[in-house]
Amino acid sequence: MSEEPASETPRAGLSRRGLLGLALGAGAAGVAVGAGAASAIALTRPDAASVADTHQFYGAHPAGITTDVQDHLHFAAFDVMEGASRQDLVELLQDWSYAAARMMLGLEVSATGAVGGSPEAPPDDTGEALGLPASNLTITIGFGPTLFSTAEGVDRFGLASQAPGSLAALPPFLGDDLDPGHTGGDLCIQACADDPQVAVHAVRNLSRIAFGRARLRWSQLGYGRTSRTSATSKTPRNLFGFKDGTANILADDTAALDEHVWVSADDGPTWLAGGSYLVARKIAMKIETWDRVRLAEQERVTGRAKGTGAPLSGGDEFAAPDFAASGAAGLAIDPRSHVSRAHPANNGGIRMLRRGYNYVDGNTALGRLDAGLFFLGYVRSPDRFITVQRSVATDLMMEYVTTVGSGIWAVPPAPSEGSFVGAGLFS
Fold first, then answer.
1. Band (231; pLDDT cuts 50, 70, 90)
2. What is the pLDDT of residue 15?
3. pLDDT at 13 over 90
4. What whole-number distance in Å separates Cα of residue 27 and Cα of residue 125?
5. Taking CA atoms, which of 171, 187, 309, 319 is between 20 and 30 Å from 216?
6. Rg, the chain, Cα only
7. Number of other residues whose CB lies within 10 A of the CB of residue 293
8. Are the C-beta atoms of residues 180 and 406 closer than 8 Å to each other?
9. DSSP of 136-181, one letter per residue?
10. 415 pairs with which residues across the strands?
11. Could you tell me the CA-to-CA distances from 292 to 155, 366, 394, 400, 415 in Å, in that order?
């Protein structure tokens, strides 16, 4: 990643606990862990020539939601370690925020980074992104229901009273066959970048910084974005070969974002205003079965033409579906099609912003592709997602997909400079 500029603006950096975590108990020779260690590590910005592919971690709304969707994803869910304190959690979020802000600018996780520290101690940065640009990296952090209260009702960190009223584990849906090893998590990190190594580097280093305070619960790599968030982007295709995300909310549609994505101050709680709710769903596709379905049936199941993406009622890709239009054998769009069951017109006007990715995890034990869609959806209230999901859970597409992983997280607004993600939760 880009080299450290000569001039630096001092800022709070990794905590004493975080630095010791990076040292992994190696004696910490040469690692600054005294009272002034945190302020000794500086957040710096690259020179103007290298900022074209960078994003700011700080601001109003979290990066990685309306940001133009990058090519690659590394998603990770974490559980806070048993016995960790509220202060441990605060310091973890501070350390993550500091490192995330640096990596999004194309820098290493600390000023000493991968090669600038003591040769007698493990480096602060793992180094696989050295020499690579920032590649439009965004890091988005979310808080799961179990961070506020465990399944047994234990308030580990004194946060239960601050929990959003609607933040709870998602109810079971038709078509779910959830693997507990790919479901839930106290915290989540969504790292998106145009270079897969940059995204993996981000999660790898944030996982390392979490040492002793949080452990990785599950993770997922994704490629080939299946949604667009800008009008200049072409609609991508999912592994069924159909265009996906045609009707997605776009970044410049501020009215739709305010109505459907961003949590308002009136929604509560106050610390979440300007943030959103993230739903992740790992949806396994029955690829080989789908590949043997005739084209006309694929289009009937989807409700759109495979080539153009246009609704079967006519027009181009972006034409509004006409669910009353007649076709050769009844309605042009089957009422049980995916587009019909998912469309806002048939779900009380509910919309969400999607940032999904394709995934291929090798083969199953039966020799079939272990592949599908890693759905990422941002919505103003979990209840809205639940409403739409209950509708699509009975559409024709469900014969060809199974949801095997799931989770929901509250994503706080982006912190202001000098603060950290979720700071309002602890004030």
1. confident
2. 60
3. no
4. 17
5. 171
6. 22
7. 15
8. no
9. T-EEEEEE-HHHHS-TT---SSS-GGGS-TT--PPPP-TTB---GG
10. none
11. 51, 17, 22, 11, 49
Q: Are 406 and 183 in contact (CB under 8 A)?
A: yes
Percent helix, percent strand, percent coil in the chain, to nearest 5: 25, 20, 55
Specify the pLDDT at position 12.
41
Name residue 426's amino acid.
F
Q: Residues with Cβ < 8 Å from 3, sequence gap 6 or more? A: none
Q: Are 285 and 372 in contact (CB under 8 A)?
A: yes
Nearest to 143 by CA among 93, 182, 199: 93
Would you call 406 helix, strand, or coil by DSSP? Answer: strand
- Count of C-beta atoms within a 10 Å radius of residue 268: 13
Sorted by sequence, the CB contacts under 8 Å of residue 152 that are 6+ apart come out as none
The answer for residues whose C-beta is within 8 angstroms of residue 145's C-beta and 6 or more apart is 163, 167, 168, 169, 408
Query: Residue 58: its pLDDT value, please?
Result: 96
CA distance 359 to 369: 10
Nearest alpha carbon to residue 387 among 414, 425, 351: 351
Torsion, CA 58, CA 61, CA 63, CA 64, rounded to 10: 170
What is each CA distance from 21 to 18, 92, 422, in whole angstroms? Answer: 5, 10, 21
Beta bridge partners of 403: 176, 283
Half-sphere exposure (Cβ direction) of 61: Cα atoms closer than 13 Å: 17
Q: What is the pLDDT of residue 228?
A: 86
Query: What is the C-alpha separation between 131 and 296, in angstroms, rounded?
Result: 49
The residues, any chain, with a CB within 8 Å of residue 257's CB and separated by 6 or more, are 66, 249, 251, 353
Grouping H, G, I as helix, E, B as strand and the rest as coil, residue 163 is coil
What residues contact residue 233 under an 8 Å CB cut-off, 6+ apart?
Answer: 68, 69
- SS3 of 34, please? coil
Which pLDDT tens digit goes with each residue over 162-184?
Answer: 999 999 999 999 999 999 999 99
Beta carbons within 10 angstroms of residue 288's beta carbon: 11
Residue 376: closest CA among 234, 247, 222: 222
Query: Rounded distance, CA 38 to CA 41, Å?
Result: 6
- Strands 276-285 and 369-379 turn out to be antiparallel
Q: Give the whole-angstrom CA distance, residue 403 versus residue 326.
A: 33
How many C-beta atoms surround the C-beta of residue 399 within 10 A?
12
- Token look-up 């905590």 returns 15
- Residue 400 sits at φ, ψ, to 5 deg, of -115, 5
In 10 A of CB 232, how many CB atoms?
8
